[in-house]
Amino acid sequence: MRTTAEVIADAPASWLRDVEGASLSALLARCGQEMSDRLAVTHLDYGESPEGLAVSLTWAELDRRASAVAGALQRLSSAEDRVAVLVPQRVDYLVAFLGACRAGMVAVPLFAPDLPGHADRLAGVLADCEPSVVLTVADKLDPVRDFLRERELDGPQVVAVDEVPESAADDWEPVEQGPGELAYLQYTSGSTKAPTGVMITHGNVVANAAQAMSAYEAVAGRTPTVSWLPLFHDMGLMLALAAPLVAGTRSVLIDPVAFIERPVRWLQALSANPGAISAAPNFAYAYCAARVEDTDKVRLRLDHVRALIDGSEPVQAGAIDRFHGAFAECGLKARVHRSSYGLAEATVLVSASPAGAAPRRVHLDRERLAAGRAVLATGEDVSTLVSCGLPVDQLVRIVDQHTEQELPQDQVGEIWVRGANVGRGYWRRQEESACTFVPAADGAGHWLRTGDLGVIHEDELYVTGRIKDLIIVDGRNHYPQDVEETVEQAHPAVRRHSAAAFAVPTDDGESAVVAVERASRLAEHEVDLDALRQAVRSAVTGRHGLNVRELVVLDPGEVPRTSSGKISRSAARKHYLTGTLRGSS
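Structure for Fatty acyl-AMP ligase, as requested:
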């Protein structure tokens, strides 16, 4: 493995060549030795100061503290045991995660038990992975212990990483880690089934970090990352930890709650860190456009942003337009928006729109797209799709989900992925792993069945939706995001980016249900439900030929979302079927 100085001198060199075969721990050691005094991570703590108190670690400090945690862990547990990370979004999270890896154990990135609405998921994951140690911080020790006791999960030992003395680093016994050994379990955010942990090896995460740095044109040692994404999510972990380790560059952390409170904080961090790479779900771009005041824009300099990754699938063109329209005056260039596709089973990143230009868009005939064909069209009855670009050092093909035969361009099918970044399978889920991770015909590696629908048009990938989310009524396919867009435009009482459309079983077959939130500016008594219901049904029937069986109107913030803030159709459907999606209908 070449030195960091050699990599920087040769940038942008072949990233994978520079790190191939390395573990996360080895990359940390390299950065700690060769860039000891340079900043590795800075957390902007808005809980301590409204201006964001900067708490930083150098590479040497991060290296030493991770070794101390590793030394403490080795006294408590054995190699390959699971270590759960229940730490808030701060520098201690990176210390805990890297300490577990350095000890030769399997990290499980999670969250403190006070994350609203996700206690059941946390308990389910802990029961599934059975950690021998839970890592947290001193101010969360009592809540974590109480949570484990209440949920009858009091087997693991609990350690506060910020109380581990630095001298414990002297007790750490180095562990040889090959690329095929497990680094961590990435639990998916689905809410309709038992928690499922994707097994990510050191080779997987290092390869994907190298692929990402190449795709987004990072310069070794010089391209910072800025992120408010939760560290227990695949993209948050990649952006704040894995990519900076591969590139030898620093990361800037913001708490997700701090972003939601004042989204301008994210843009201020981008402005203060020229050349940065960042990422957000699609909704966050529209949220910034709506919530950032003109007075705040005066001080923003966004002309030096290197890349803004948009990883929601499918990416919504309207949200992109509103964001760039709102911040063009701050120097933001449309070409920095990099629509991308990925999933936890592939570590995170699969494809990205080409650098140097705004992502391509196509307008496709809605009816023919629903029937499985991508045909360019004009007029109102079209679906506008944003390209997710080209595979990033991976193989991607579109497959008929029934025959498992590869389809030609312009035909819709399931997206299959193959590459060094594809995970090893699901933790203790042999049958599910066998269905999802399909051995390749040449005997080398396997294909990942993503469960996503997509089409390749003029060599670029367009994601059309999730197979499980497809609404099939009277033999016709309807993409839920198209229905949701129509619903949100049907009546001013519908809150933007709040609709969840899904299918439910009835005596007459599948029927469509839509859950929405009322606009936050309106009180409940100010909404004419009859007029709202009539407007929505008329719009959906007129544009999609689909009858909405029931429209459930909820208060602002009550449509189920994942922990990263995206609408969860599967959770909305589950709550509807169990009678817990309560609102006005």
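The radius of gyration is 24 Å.
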